[in-house]
Amino acid sequence: MLDLSGKVAFVAGAGSVGDGWGNGRATAVLLARQGAKVFGTDYDAGALAGTTAIMETEGHQDWSEHRADMTDSDEVQQAVDACIQRFGRIDILVNNIGGSMPGDPVSLSVEEWDGQMDRNLKTAFLSCKHVLPIMERQFEREGKGGAIVNVSSIASKSFQVGGRVHVAYAASKAGLEAFSRATAIAYVKKGIRVNTVVVGMMNTPLVSQRLTKQLGTADPDVLAAKRNALVPMGRMGEAWDVANAVVFLASDEAGYITATQLIVDGGVTASRSGPQ
User: Fold this and answer.
1) Residue 152, SS3?
2) Which of 66, 3, 11 is nearest to 33 (CA)?
3) Would you please indicate which residues are annotated as catalytic (active-site) residues?
4) H helices then E strands: how many in the chain?
5) Dist. CA 42–CA 129, nearest whole Å
6) Nearest 5 degrees, angle CA 168-CA 174-CA 180?
7) Which DSSP symbol is given to 274?
8) How far is 238 from 34, CA to CA, in rounded Å?
9) Cα separation, 147 vs 255, whole angstroms
């Protein structure tokens, strides 16, 4: 089950803050554990180096790191070229780059709005722009195209968890989901599947660090307890919850699934979708 031997995965956002497990790091490592050759990018070379250290400790020799700003088309092209030079193909593309910033249309600056759109939406557009032709050629040559998994957020579902407003983040993630569906249908006859993992509240180093700073909370444990209480399951998710979902959608076992969303949120969306 979920055997990815012989497949090459390109993971955008494969680093993590500090020594912890972020969504991208866990996804990259799990892909390698399932047999894939993994090419990982990140804007932060230090974050990426931590993933490399884990790959080396676990003995994953078919791993390659590449620092890249995935909002820059030229750097994305260079990263894709480097992956092809190292591994010769790309079967799986994971777009895991993003970040949230609170604010409404008045309080957000134009630069902050544009930054959210660039990180959460443009990065997926650029990686798809440069990877889709490769997958299309593989389909023409071998009858096997590829699988793309984009990582979104429940902020796209028209409500704000915890009472804070994130209009740019919500809009960019909703855009990402629409982009995924439209791209899936555009390439459905070319052997390429495109799906989205919609993530709820996660207990990852990046989220904890960012929220602690944004909220001015001195005790991260207090913050974690408040966030746990907002989830019907009683706890936030972990990076491995996201990684498991991504790897499933990237695998041959999900071969009849495209243009869909897999919500990984402990029941938050369902609990808030009806009358309040």
Assistant:
1) strand
2) 3
3) 169
4) 10, 7
5) 18
6) 135
7) S
8) 19
9) 9
Residues across the chain: 276
- Going from the C-alpha of 224 to that of each of 15, 60, 108, 161, 227, the distances in angstroms are 22, 33, 26, 14, 5
What does the alpha-carbon distance between residue 218 and residue 84 come to, in Å, rounded to a whole number? 45
Residue 140, Cβ density class (10 Å: 0-12 exposed, 13-18 middle, ≥19 buried): exposed
User: 55 - beta bridge partners?
Assistant: none
CB atoms within 10 A of CB 103: 18
pLDDT in tens, 93-117: 999 999 889 899 999 999 999 999 9
CA distance 176 to 117: 10
List all residues 6 or more positions away from 64 whose beta carbon is below 8 Å from its beta carbon. Answer: 38, 39, 40, 82, 83, 86, 87
What secondary structure does DSSP assign to 22-43, as a single string? -HHHHHHHHHHHTT-EEEEEES
Residues 141-157: tens digit of each pLDDT: 999 999 999 999 999 98
Between CA 155 and CA 170 the distance in angstroms is 5
Strand partners, 263: 198
